[in-house]
Amino acid sequence: MHKPYGYLSQFMSNNPSEARKKRFLGELHDFPEGTMSVGRLDEESEGLLLLTTDGRVSELIRRKDVEKEYYAQVDGLITDEAVAQLQQGVEIGLPEGKYQTLPCTAYRLPTAPTLPPRARRIRSDRHGPTSWVSITVTEGKFRQVRKMTAAVGFPTLRLVRVRIGSLHLHDLESGEVREVDGFSA
Predict the structure, then answer these.
(1) What phi and psi values does residue 108 have, to the nearest 5 degrees?
(2) Catalytic position from the list 30, 42, 80, 171
(3) Out of 152-156, 174-178, 179-183, least confident range
């Protein structure tokens, strides 16, 4: 599924207050009973979200040898030094304390990727330039990519997951669901 911006990676809420204020995946499609999201995306993030009814598939995808690639639009023109820091791993804060991210693949995208427009504008161009970076990680800590770009001085403005293992977002429209046969890392 291409999870749109502004939706939670869950299908509904039993909390009446949250159910009135938030948007859920169940509003977008009639999913089979027992469907779960694998590798959640926060409300502000968008892109490839795998859904399954098989808990074993969920476990397979969360392994450390499965790559997850993100495109991050960052505030400012990201430098070679910042990209090198991302590649080496950076220290980020987690609820349980400081954490050193594993080395990853990161590079500046020469042009903005072709993505569907976001429903809500990111910000006005008068606030300065932005740039795009590709970051591929094999771990998935809480808001990790956002924290990584902030740690090197370039906060994330838009975050889109474009690949999990061998599955790519490609031309999947925001909110669209497509069934795939199996998963391979």
Answers:
(1) -75, 135
(2) 42
(3) 179-183
